[in-house]
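Hi R.,

Here's the input for the adenosine-5'-diphosphate complex you asked about:
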Amino acid sequence: MTKTNLEFRTEVKQLLDLMIHSLYSHKEIFLRELISNASDAIDRARYESLTNSGIMENEGGWKIKISADKDAGTLTISDNGIGMTRDEAIAALGTIAHSGTKEFIAALQSREVKDNPDLIGQFGVGFYSSFMVADKVTVVSRKAGIGDSSGVKWESTADGFYTVEDIQKDQKGTDVTLHLKADEKKYLDEWEIRGIIRKYSDYIEHPVVMDIEREKDSELKKGEKVRVVEEETLNSGKAIWLRDKSQITQEEYNEFYKHVSHDFSDPAMAVHFRAEGTSEFTALLYLPSRAPFDIFYKDFKIGPALYVKRVQIMDHCEQLIPLYLRFVKGVVDSSDLPLNVSRELLQKNRQVEIINKNITRKVLDTLSDMKKNRFDEYLRFYKEFGRILKEGIHYDVSKRETIADLLIFDSTQKAAGTYTTLQEYLDGMKEGQEEIFYITGSSRAEIIKSPYLEAFRDKGYEVLIMLDEVDDIVMSALHEYKGKKIKSVIKGDIKLDKPDEAEKEAGKKLETLIALIREQLKDEVKDVRFSGRLRDTACCLVADEGGIDPQLEKLLRSMGQNVPENKRILEINPSHPIFGAMNRLFERNPKSAVLEEYINLLYDQALLLEGSKPKDPVSFAGTVTRLMVRDAEKE
Ligand code: ADP
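And here is the predicted structure with adenosine-5'-diphosphate in place:
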């Protein structure tokens, strides 16, 4: 096949544009990215060689070679790993495989990011970072395990297009050649390259080598010097997770994190431990400092990399962690699993279950410790990942209490930006208060004013404020904490006080009116009853104790799910003057059209207060303005 000219996908063009105009301040990381890709390619080849005799370790071993050609102005990173076919090169180097890329790039193009270039680090720009320093990139690759020497040459100047061409290549693997920009030639310098590799890629397990020319004493003629070229390994190559903790610097931990996570920012925390006994393994796990942009997408890759006796088996093994810890990155190296372990085998493997349990305990312990001793750091972590961690309360009964202790809450008793915990809540409960209360909603500002809180405000009871859509599910699953029931203030009946005689009397008087409201709204609401929540507001809508939370209902509907019609209960506040007035009107004329109009209005108001829209906004607006005219005429 001859040379074919192909166009990049839109998102790649946009990304390249961002890279070329170099948002990112540390351009030298391009080398880390390319070495990281080369190392991944070798890991894959090594793994496949276990079962495919067509793929074998090369003479001289697996390695990554850096070659700087000062005359040509090129830097080449070669590996003898898995390689790519023509189609794979087109798919891997012409598109970006992450979902959510479009949205992410749109966000990157915003002013905020232009002013804060390091944000691009959330995205694994990988290969494309080459274009920060090169105006042309050539990739020559041959897939391992293919009998003949056919390969592919991919080339681009990042002008929106790239070419692919069939070529012959002697060795399997990939050579990435960067034609460096005129002002980036420093990357050809041996000491510059050494420095970058020591800083960013020292932990890479495979040797990163370079031909080094040196002057040496001649062995043939004493006293004479000769120039020789020798291949030298530039990295130490020791698997970092197998090293002694006390010998590893923070920088080394951070750089290894970037390699395994494809994140550009430093992690929030490294958790490094060895387990012995029923299962022998070493884990080096990380809590990222920022949520990856695609963490809520379906194809988000979950789980640390799995190694068996130092051989990488897979880069993400989701069986190793529970889903609610899916933000955890890193490496697990097991001594017990067989090298040829398959995904199917992992599913119900006892060793894997033990590792999973161990990791879960260790990560939760680390979080508890962080919360206790470094709360500010914990808060930053929680803002990024709390929403995911909380899912554990629903899914992992055995860890429910531990996770409950990791929750932090906004609350009616705390100023915005300060937080409480369930234990603190218990400690601050008022005399006579029997339950822990929470309210769900979409913003603190809205919630603070909510009529649902009137009675709680009156009594000085604290109410936890919860803004995530999953919160109601989480709190319902938790159900109680240290013997105290947990209750939503917008669901079920609330009785903070027993009604006194006067209230009972007022209630009796309204019974016929309530029957009328119940009858008129019978298609809309399940029941009409007196409210224990309200003090100043006339009425509100509440769900049944076990009913679905309005926040969650909105979320499910927006996801296109079929949520069954969920009738609510209309609660009215018998001490509000409107009911006295309506009652008098009712006594004068039970068939009054105004009364009917008022009942509809009350229902619409209740809908507004729970954050929904009136059933018929046009008719609602019409009625309100008609009443305004009527009132204005009386002025
Ligand atoms: P990532 O490494 O995050 O997937 P990159 O943009 O760095 O993203 O690389 C895209 C893809 O290109 C890789 O997933 C891999 O399939 C392929 N690739 C890149 N470099 C190599 C290489 N040296 N050998 C084989 N495949 C490679």
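One thing worth noting: The mean pLDDT is 88.

Cheers,
M.
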